[in-house]
Amino acid sequence: MSGLLAETLGTRALMPETAETLIPERPTLPRLRDAASRCTACHLYKGATQTVFGEGTRKAQVMLVGEQPGDREDIEGEPFVGPAGKLLERALEEAGVSRGDVYLTNVVKHFKYEQRGKRRIHQRPNAEEIGACRPWLEAEVALVKPKVLVCLGATAAKTLLGQSFRVTKQRRELIESELAPFATATVIDPARAERRGPPPCLRRLRGRSASDRRGPRLACRPRRGRCGRRLGPSTSSGARRTCSSA
Ligand code: SF4
Predict the structure, then answer these.
(1) What is the pTM of this model?
(2) In angstroms, what is the span from residue 137 Cα to ligand 1's centroid?
């Protein structure tokens, strides 16, 4: 056995396959954050500065889930503080939603990158890494119980809404999910946001905060057929609901 192979197998033997065994028995967000800060369930912790756990309160009605922390987030230890975060913040601001009313997190909690000279270039996490990290995200969703779950990008959408989800075709649609009464996906595309403002699913939250007892306002209305009848989960025609303005 080569030294490298032995080293790889040895390291693997020490690493739990997923973070499942690290979830505290009586989880709270601070306990989860603390446990995740020591996670070694996959190899991504090795190259990263720190775990970037979710941010927000348990009372948040809206949960936004991205793919993974970026370079800036890795250094600062907070999600969505890099360029995409700035854009998201602007989008939320334009939508009249305060960042404090939203729970922000990522599918994978450590930054995956490739070093090119002085630059760290983002790398998409693979299925094994996503699977290893998934228990943290599941625990966050179970605690926050969001009314609205917004997946930002394809990785988050496929992880939470199913592998068959196609963000290019299905973004803005309301998807039947046991994770939240309203679940949808969008992309944060800087060029598009410059031209057209925040993604529609964020605009629809306008004017409602997490403390609003009526809940966040969703203008995503169930799709109606030509006869005016409601289409969607309450009918036998399928479980998909679609934004009326998509
Ligand atoms: Fe643990 Fe997730 Fe980090 Fe992997 S990416 S070490 S599973 S926290």
Answers:
(1) 0.76
(2) 11
Break the chain into its structural domains and give their ranges. 16-242
Atom of ligand 1 nearest to the CA of 125: 5
**DSSP letters of the chain?**
--HHHHHHHHHHHHS-SSGGGGS-SS--HHHHHHHHTT--SSGGGGTSSS----BS-TT-SEEEEES---HHHHHHTSTT-SHHHHHHHHHHHHTT--GGGEEEEESSSS--EEEETTEEEE----HHHHHHHHHHHHHHHHHH--SEEEEESHHHHHHHH-TT--HHHHTTEEE--SS-SEEEEE---HHHHHHH-S-HHHHTTTT--TT-TT------PPPB-TTSPBPSTTSTT-SEEE-TT-
Residue-level pLDDT, tens digit, the chain, 246 residues: 444 444 444 444 456 689 999 999 999 999 999 999 999 999 999 999 999 999 999 999 999 999 999 999 999 999 999 888 888 888 888 888 888 889 999 999 999 999 999 999 999 999 999 999 999 999 999 999 999 999 999 999 999 999 999 988 998 899 989 999 999 998 865 444 444 555 555 555 555 444 444 444 444 444 444 444 444 443 333 344 443 333
- Look at ligand 1, atom 7, and give the residue with the nearest C-alpha: 133
Name the class of domain 16-242: alpha beta
Pick from 38, 51, 159 the residue to mutate for probing ligand 1's pocket: most ligand atoms within 8 Å of its CB.
51
